[in-house]
Amino acid sequence: MVRTSKKPGEQRGITDRPLFLFALIFTTVFLLHASVLRLPYFWDEAGYFIPAARDLLLTGSLIPHTTLSNAHPPLVMIWLAAWWKFSNYTPAVTRTAMLLVSAFALLGVWRLAKQVSNVKVAAASVVLVALYPVFFAQSSLAQLDVAAAAFTIWGTAMHVENRRALTIVFLSLAPLAKETAIVAPLTLFAWELLCPLVSRGRDYLCLHEHKLLHTFSFLLCALPLAAWYAYHYHRVGYIFGNPEFLRYNVGATITPLRIALAFIERMWQAFGYMNLFFLTLPALYAMRIPALSDDGHERQRIAIPVQIVFGLLVLAHAVEFAFLGGAVLARYMVPVIPFVIIICVSTLYRRVREWPAWVAVAAFAFVLALVINPPWRIAPEDNLAYSDFVRLHKQAATLIEKHYPEDRILTAWPASDELNRPFLGYVRKPLTVVRIENFTAEQVLAAAQQPDAFDVAFVFSTKYEPQRNFMSRFSWWEKIQERFFDYHRDLTPDVIAPMLHGRIVWQQNRGGQWAAIIEVDKIRNARLDLPDLNPRNHPSASSPAGISQ
Q1: Closest of 507, 463, 457, 456 to residue 481, by C-alpha
Q2: Domain 382-537, what fold?
């Protein structure tokens, strides 16, 4: 059984004042995110979470009506709607509200790491989690994963401290933030049930003394989620989201080879992705080094039962998201990344005298991954590439609204929503949009067969695609991505323009991503007074919009 309680009579210092620490953490992350607070909404924010929260604000309905319901539990949407209600509906308010959730998650990392190790390990773990690119990028986005992480971390901390009631409260809130977070209490339930059998009477594997009532209390965490699904079914007639959402995220993912490949990628995301290997590999190597001693006492490791709990939670998430999720997004693993970081920092602290230097190297590597894209494909939301995407689209939307307010704009999602829904922050009035699925040759050729259906095309990169992709040399990898993970290759603007019988009037690249406006020739002939927006056609002049290439 693990001893986790505080020593009697021990004085409280600054590090034991949670409100002070929360204020310090929030202020720091707020300042670090200052440059992105006013950005319009990005990708899944714009596609679902912001419309759903806005519907709740305007109508009081937990079921969105301006977008198809994905059956996501409403806790995050309620949080955002409340902030808009009592403050203002702006991206800055939204992102500040999400940073509060992020700060709460980091406070949970502090409490958990301090409880299982010490103050030094806790401080280093908080810094590394905050700087880890995926966590950093997700911290200000109106999505579900950081909220699920916050409640999962706090629930685990309460479990380690053997505070049963608070454990159940936090682990019940986690799946109300994101339904997949139910895997945490179910994993803890299964382990507490099996641990006495596995340990065979030895208590060094079990975190707490086995009590059957306490073990089954984890099942209470599923009740709020079950109640939400019952309500959702009552309102819309289906349980787990609209049929297309369910097919993409569940039905199309259940093949043995895809599950195996997705599991490998999930483990990479948990232990190596975005320069995480700068922390995990040194920690793995440090396992070969004897533990250090202070005043004749060996530095203590994180208790084995706690490490088992952390490991099982990481494994459970990897397995869960090997089966679920049409896109293998790194943000799905955010709830368990702090467990990996805490164990690695504790290992370095215990065995390496220069452990602060290794932590500093990992922090520097995280910052590099945050601002510099790797030589392979990533989702823009995994680092600050998402801000490049948003800024490109905002610039394009401003030009389109100014010069083509009455025209029909051919484009793909999410730009179709950006141009048609002013509340997303890109345009002031809705524009007429003609939608295609993406910018593959098949989709562009299909659009070219109906030239009278649109007047202007807004084309853009739908993913970060490096000019020299390290993985593109392996043709088998490209085929796997196309077959199992919905990969497609976008045509470039120079190729798309002649296919649509048009010409590029504006184009810009930013951080390896691009966007372009293509004017169809028939419109150009009809409106000869329209200025050419492409500065390449005016060597001595700048763009009318004041945007340099």
Answers
A1: 463
A2: Rossmann fold (3.40.50)
For residue 101, give the nearest of 17, 26, 169 by alpha carbon: 26
| SS3 of residue 428 by DSSP | coil
Closest by CA position to 500, among listed 478, 481, 479, 516:
516
The pair of three-digit structure tokens given for residue 257, joined into one six-digit string: 């080879």
- pLDDT tens, 395-429? 999 999 999 999 999 999 999 999 999 999 999 99
Alpha helix (H) residue ranges in 372-462: 385-403, 415-420, 441-448
Q: Which sign, positive or negative, has the C-alpha torsion 289, 293, 297, 301?
A: negative
Tell me the pTM: 0.90
Q: Please tell me the distance from the alpha carbon of residue 24 to that of residue 158, in angstroms, as a whole number.
A: 22
The full set of domain ranges for the chain reads: 16-372, 382-537
Would you state the structure tokens that stand for residue 3, as one six-digit string?
């001893």
Exposure of 205 by Cβ count < 10 A (0-12 exposed, 13-18 middle, 19+ buried)?
A: middle
Structure tokens at 96: 């500040």
CA 291 to chain centre: 36
- Please report, for residues 178, 347, 504, the alpha-carbon distance to residue 124 in angstroms, rounded to integers and kept in the order given: 28, 12, 49
Each residue's pLDDT tens digit, 176-209: 999 999 999 999 999 999 998 887 766 678 888 8
Ranking 237-246, 419-428, 522-531 by mean pLDDT, the lowest is 522-531
Per-residue model confidence (pLDDT) at position 352: 96
Quickly state the pLDDT bin for 253 (edges 50, 70, 90).
Answer: low
The pLDDT confidence band at residue 16, using thresholds 50, 70 and 90, is confident
Residue 35, pLDDT > 50, answer yes
Give the pLDDT of residue 413. Answer: 94
Q: How far apart are CA 524 and CA 319, in angstroms?
A: 54
Closest to 80 measured CA to CA, from 66, 101, 59, 65: 101
Q: Please classify residue 516 by burial: count the beta carbons closer than 10 Å to its beta carbon, then call 0-12 exposed, 13-18 middle and 19+ buried.
A: buried
Nearest to 313 by CA among 137, 118, 148, 165: 148
228 CB burial (10 A radius; 0-12, 13-18, 19+): buried
Q: Residue 134 is encoded by which pair of tokens? A: 């995926």
Of 79, 54, 229, whose CA–CA distance to 148 is shortest?
79
Within 10 angstroms of residue 435's Cβ, the number of other Cβ atoms is 15
Q: What is the spatial distance between Cα 516 and Cα 412, in angstroms, rounded to a whole number? A: 13
Per the CB < 8 A criterion, the answer to whether 392 and 516 are in contact is no
Statement: residue 293 has pLDDT above 70? yes
The number of C-alpha atoms within 13 Å of 224 and in the hemisphere containing its C-beta is 21
CA distances from 309 to 53, 91, 187, 327, 340 (A): 34, 38, 9, 27, 11
Q: What is the pLDDT of residues 114-153, one digit of tens each?
A: 999 999 999 999 999 999 999 999 999 999 999 999 999 9
